[in-house]
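Recall from the previous lesson that a structure prediction takes nothing but the amino acid sequence as input. Here we apply that procedure to Riboflavin transporter from Niallia endozanthoxylica. The sequence below is the only information supplied.
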Amino acid sequence: MGKGQNKVRALVSIAMLSSIAYVLMLVNFPIPPFPNFLKIDFSDIPALIGALIFGPMAGILVELLKNVLDYFMTGSETGVPVGHMANFIAGILFILPTYYIYNKMKSKKGMTFALIIGSILMSGIMSILNYYIILPAYTFFLNWPAMSGTEIRQYIVAGILPFNLIKGLAMSLVFMLLFTKMGTWLNKQTSYKEYKI
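The prediction returns the following tokens.
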């Protein structure tokens, strides 16, 4: 397959994966006892598949396109895409470490390790970003009463950090179920990496 055909195949595949990710983003659900606005979905899985087949930029594009679609189709309670930006960043923090670690350890154990590290990094860095940027932005745009630093830390430790760890674990379990069926097929797609997005 020539480079031109590879490019077309990659772009069509990214568009399809983005559409699937958008639909999965709509199929979300809260988990008690966390606040209702913290919801689990599995929309990062198509982005991870895109990254594994076409390179990390493809995964980033899927994350971007699904959030752009969701913002224009459903809007945002803040009027600006604070939640969508947070989702985009969290998705990248999950898929990129997973992609790079798996590329160094191409095995089922390697993928399991990569997913665990991806989940931990995503949860840890998102906690920091929530403390300094995301929660203050929500407070500002929704006109909520300002929280003290102590209140924000307690909110993150009791809610956001454990939620993101659970979300990462859930995505990892679902992806590993898919990977056990698709692992051989995914590894055969290396020819398409000749044209990385």
